[in-house]
Amino acid sequence: MSENPVIPQIKVDDLPAQNVSPKPRRKGLLIALGVVGIILIYLSLSSLIVYSKATQLKKTVSALMVAGKSQDLVKIKSELTNTKSSLKALKSSFVIISPFRIIPFLGSYISDASHLINAGLYGMDFSDIVLTTIEPYSDLLGLTGGKDNAIGDGTKTAKDRIDFIVKSIPDLIPNIDKISAKTALIEKELSGINPERYPVRIGKTEVRSKVKSGLELFREAASFVTNGKPLLEAAPYLLGIDSERTYLLLFQNDKELRPTGGFMTGYSIMKVNKGAFSPVSSSDIYNLDAKYKPTIVAPDPIIKYLKGPYALSNKLRLRDMNWSPDFAESMKQFTEEAKTVGITGIDGIISVDTQVLVYLLDAIGKIGVPGFGNFSTEVDPRCNCPNVIYELESFADVEGPVVWDPDGSGKIIYAPANYDNRKKIIGPLMNSILANAMGQPKDKLPKLFEAGFKSLVEKHVLFYLFDSKTQDAVSSFGIAGIIKSTNGDYLHINDANLGGRKSNLYVTNEISQEFSVGKDGYVEKTLTLTYKNPMKQDGWLNSVLPDWVRIYVPKGSTLISFDGAEDKAEPYEELGKTVFAGFFKLRPEGVSKLTLKYKLPIKGNAKELNLLIQKQPGLDAPLYTIKTGRNEEEFFLKTDKEIKIRL
């Protein structure tokens, strides 16, 4: 009889895993995929709606730009209304994708777009106010379709135009407040956009640099708007509306560059009464110096490198008193000393350089100055420069001072050739330009307006006024040539031509700044200054340039190295900054390069560093390069510039 077989006991836990029902997991996966699908469909559809609205906005913006180029005020207003409607439609459609802001990466771009749309709407309001403000000046700005005004047609005299502008100033001020308020709202929205999150480029198209430059351009424009009100309020004083003003018009030759914009070669006394300028007298700076008894010891670089009269006496001459890079500081000393030789009864100093004449003549065209000939901006082959520059340098090419009889007879014992023309040219030339400017037909007025604005913002015109309120107004607008106080990083490069020649005519400047963080945690900078002169020597306009350069940086900065200079000063403090200074020579067809490395008194643990760069008056537009890690940015410095540096 056989035994019963033993049947093994199998526990449920011992069953293979695949025997468990897969239904719950599959169901969860299907639900998740469904949700994702719905989100993707919603995102796609909502994106298409936003895209269609954005496309419509692009069309209206293009139409607005075309209207702007037509300079027709009626068309501009019409297209501005269309653009505003398109922008509102885009904002409404944008609500449907706003929930996706919570998604990493994508959310930041949606947020930026929202800021941009809000800024655009404020910009439309801003534009409405601006158009209302400028409509009475439509002819002055080259716009058609505006209301009739007293500037208008070519039959209007210079006096008619001046009277209209003067009477309109009080009406402008309330609108400036409205414009400033809208500007602040736009600036607040744009401040939420971080350009660093954008790619450097997409394909061959630059992206990040365009975002940066757009934001910086707005900040600069906003600054002009905000600071324009005090200047507008000071205009009645400046234009002699309440009382006649007397100004010393100082001509600085930027082709012989000095700290405040150029060598002070000549001057003119001018009166302004209710906006109308009239010259009183003009003379040569050497004639003024011939009457002056120097008492102030000259700065060491002037004594050491300029030589000339300083080989006999170390006392500073009037013509060299613009040594401080702060125009107000220089003019304060100059006016005090000039009083001793009869320059009294003035309300302030207005300086101009040769670029002002070039800008104005570009707008006006060739003009004639009785007794001196014709002046234009046509390229003169004798110098490969504008004709007006060649002629002015020819008049200024006088070696040595006028020597007067020490017995007081009033007779001239010695005078260099051409000195008489030299002392007379400034007043008549400026008078001819002013007369021509205000008598131009209306189609040339926009170019004149642009010439004046560029001359101001690019520091080719500077003001030093004795009335403190008016001086504060020109300072806030950036046309007083002052060295500013600031938090964060700072840079001002100041060159002085100590050779007595016009060597700066052909010189170009390139400045590179490279940021890094040192082992001790402080920010370090490598600063490279490159000077180039591509032209041959002629012994007159182009010769060796002996240059004393001063680099103004944040107070407390520490110099690590300074290469390329033939002579160097010990670092010192001035105007609330630390200064690194040295001497070098730039030869025709040559290149000079200075390299400095220094440590800022700033820790590198902050994500962002504010940098203020102040341009030297008299310079054209030096090329600046800023490097931080792999990022690099280039721009031409036409005016003071504030930049946010990402470390």
Instruction: Tell me the distance between the termini.
Output: 95 Å
Low-confidence stretches: none
Q: What's the overall average pLDDT, rounded?
A: 83
Strand content of the residues, in percent? 15-25%
Tally the beta strands.
26
- The number of helical segments is 13
* Morphology call: globular
Structural class: alpha+beta
Key terms:
single chain, 647 residues, alpha+beta, 7-stranded mixed β-sheet, 6-stranded mixed β-sheet, 13 helices, 26 strands
Folded structure, characterized:
- The chain has 647 residues and is of the alpha+beta class.
- Helix content is 39%, strand content 25%.
- It has 13 helices and 26 strands.
- The chain has helices at 23-70, 73-94, 106-134, 158-190, 208-238, 285-290, 300-306, 327-338, 354-364, 387-396, 419-438, 445-457, 468-476, and strands at residues 201-202, 205-206, 245-253, 263-273, 276-284, 348-353, 367-369, 373-375, 379-380, 385-386, 403-404, 412-414, 461-465, 489-497, 508-517, 522-533, 545-554, 558-563, 567-568, 572-574, 577-586, 590-603, 608-614, 623-628, 631-636, 641-646.
- The strands form seven sheets. Strands 14, 17, 19, 20, 21, 23 and 26 form a seven-stranded mixed beta sheet that branches. Strands 18-22-16-15-24-25 form a six-stranded mixed beta sheet, with no helix packed on it. Strands 5-4-3-6-13 form a five-stranded mixed beta sheet, with helices on both faces.
- Helix 4 (158-190) crosses helix 5, helix 5 packs antiparallel against helix 13 (468-476) and helix 9 (354-364) packs antiparallel against helix 12.
- It is globular, with a radius of gyration of 33 Å.
- The model has no long low-confidence stretch (mean pLDDT 83).
